[in-house]
Amino acid sequence: MTMSINWFSVGATSLVLLLTFGLLGAMFLIIKLSSDDSGKYNALKDMVETLFETPAHLRPGAAAKNDDNNKEAAAQSAAALEPFVEACPACGDTVTEAHKECPTCGLRLQ
User: What's the pTM value of the predicted model, to 2 decimals?
Assistant: First the structure.
């Protein structure tokens, strides 16, 4: 009985140590790859920077780029809207594609 418990303890300890060293090695590998300046691991580097630093979309230089992207997307979505005249789902008043909110009840339409 004691012999089987002893082998079980050795096996469990070995498994825990193997997992620990595997995780430690993975951490060193991620740190090494994220500090590489060759440009091969940009996706991993961006992910690590987002976790531990200011995310890319909140950095000062990215604000102008985001504004340009938002303006382009708004222009495309406005151009994609087809003209319509329908009744407001809340109050029944007539609304068109130009209304962002119902003029009568204030329901947000888009």
Answer: 0.40
